[in-house]
Amino acid sequence: MTFGDEVKAFYKSLKIPTGLPKDVDALYPFGNPETWLVIEQFFQKFYNDSNPRILLMGINPGRFGAGLTGIGFTDPIRLEEECGIANNFQKKAELSSKFIYDVIHAYGGPSKFYSRFFFSSISPIGFVKNGKNYNYYDEPKLEKAVYPFAASCLEKKLKFGCSRDTAFSIGQGKNFKFLSKLNNEHNFFERVEFVPHPRWVMQYRLKRKEEFIDQYIQALNSVQD
User: Fold this and answer.
1) Strand runs (DSSP E) across 32-165, as ranges?
2) What sign for the dihedral angle of Cα 189, 171, 143, 52?
3) Cβ–Cβ < 8 Å for 21, 142
4) pLDDT tens digit sequence for 132-165
5) Are 69 and 63 in contact (CB under 8 A)?
6) 73 close to 97: Cβ distance less than 8 angstroms
7) Which of 44, 72, 138, 139 is the most buried (most CB within 10 A)?
């Protein structure tokens, strides 16, 4: 099986974590036929080999990015215009996706980037509360429910070819702390590093965007497969 085949099998195996707070709904894109169609095309195009990939771990999918397309940090606009995969999703931009594809361009383009890296999330299943994106760490009960699920997901990712040397947290705050805790308890990786969260850059440090893109490139170039 190729790396892409392994990821798709992983997505098909996912079950919504138990013990979620009653007012929190799961965001599960993998049951949507349109989402699955673009997943098939994306992984055939960029992951049709058995080479290892370095993990970049986000928080959990959002409604206008991976929670819709099934592709980490990739909204419908970037999926079509940058990755060459036509889709019928509403073409609404996501700030994080815009920044990430600026990074991908600076690295050398999608083919070069995806040949070394794989975007995932601490929780591959997203969450919504009151119709808005909700992070797994936004309340203790949800974080507690996600912890064993996240550990199990990471273990599976390592079995299908993600590098054990270095993993990146996308975000230097709570997500990095959570991933570091998981790693300290399970020894998934030799090192856990972080890069700034793209939404934080786009919302609060937009004038310094090029500086943060350079920070990403330096971090990505510093690791071995």
Assistant:
1) 54-58, 117-121, 126-129, 132-134
2) negative
3) yes
4) 999 999 999 999 999 999 999 999 999 988 999 9
5) no
6) yes
7) 72
